Amino acid sequence: MAAPGVLLLLLLGCSVAVLAVQLSTNNANPVVDEFKSVELSCKIHSTITNEPRIEWKKIWNADTSYVYFNNTIQGDLKGRARIQAKSSLVILNASRTDTGKYRCEVAAIGDDKKIDELYITLTVQVKPVTPKCTVPKSVPVGKSAVLHCHESEGYPRSTYSWHHNGESLPADSKADPKFVNSSFLLDRTTGTLTFSAVNKGDMGRYYCLASNDAGSAMCGEQVLEVYDLNIGGIVGGILVVVLVLSLITAGICCAYRKGYFASRSRSTGQSYKNPAKPEGVNYLRTNDEGDFRHKSSFVI
Ligand SMILES: *[C@@H]1O[C@H](CO)[C@@H](O)[C@H](O)[C@H]1NC(C)=O
Ligand SMILES: *[C@@H]1O[C@H](CO)[C@@H](O)[C@H](O)[C@H]1NC(C)=O
Ligand SMILES: *[C@@H]1O[C@H](CO)[C@@H](O)[C@H](O)[C@H]1NC(C)=O
């Protein structure tokens, strides 16, 4: 009694499955490097007609545009894509602008209800280009220093590493005993390497590497000099200058005291009371002009 019922149900189930359009994909999230070929797989499992209507659309932000319509590749992909195995889309030379969500739609002609669709999310990876790097030329010991590295082409976004004399630096100098004498932080997402206080050991050659899943690119090495701000030397230099100035002053004083300038005045036939140099005389010998006079004549 139950057997015919079960049979009927089975028949109904089969016929429903046969009548419907059914799609599947090998890979709903393909990833490809720019300029390479990629398949957006959309396979028809069953349909009632041999000539179903196949369409591909691209959904980007709020826009939907035709990619394959009326048996022709449309728009931007024209000449760069083809249909393979009836309903899969192959992009032959992927461009970074191809990144996005695609919809494969297959309809059994003549019956709009017999339709299925599936979504493929394509990621086109772009290699980083040579990053722009800035390294300060010369920094005094103990001062802060910032090294920059950046490039904007890479997709997914590049991450950065800095290398000092060929050795890769950790994100935090405190995390590695090898860098115990350094004090830097590296932000791998921005490419900025910040020294809070440079050390003699930080001197040397630096380069930066920008990398993502598609590849990497580096900037040319640049040299960072670290010099001593020699306080002892500076103080010594100032002392020497002060000493030299004192000696000169003392020399001039002596010359005045010994009447060198006065005698010169007198030799031109003028008195040493010559108003040409009164301040000097007064300054040196404020209230003892007699002594001055005496010494002057003594020298001569
Ligand atoms: C579809 O393509 C055929 C030629 O392949 C053309 O004659 C027809 O006008 C096209 N239809 C539309 C709606 O573009
Ligand atoms: C792919 O496209 C780029 C431009 O987008 C072009 O320079 C390159 O020659 C193309 N490669 C091939 C194999 O067609
Ligand atoms: C850190 O500095 C000290 C003292 O100048 C030195 O002895 C040591 O070797 C340095 N360590 C490293 C890893 O350079």
Automatic annotation (TrEMBL):
It is found in: Cell junction, Tight junction; Cell membrane. GO terms for cellular component: bicellular tight junction; cell-cell contact zone; plasma membrane; protein complex involved in cell adhesion. It is a single-pass type I membrane protein. GO terms for molecular function: cell-cell adhesion mediator activity; integrin binding; protein heterodimerization activity; protein homodimerization activity. Gene3D superfamilies: Immunoglobulins. Residues 4-121, 131-225 form the Ig-like domain. GO terms for biological process: cell migration. Keywords: Cell junction, Cell membrane, Disulfide bond, Immunoglobulin domain, Membrane, Signal, Tight junction, Transmembrane, Transmembrane helix. InterPro entries: Ig-like_dom, Ig-like_dom_sf, Ig-like_fold, Ig_sub, Ig_sub2, JAM-C. The keyword Disulfide bond applies. Residues 1-20 form the signal peptide. It comes from the Eukaryota. The chain crosses the membrane at residues 231-256. Belongs to the immunoglobulin superfamily. This is Junctional adhesion molecule 3. It comes from Leptobrachium leishanense. The lineage of its organism: Eukaryota, Metazoa, Chordata, Craniata, Vertebrata.
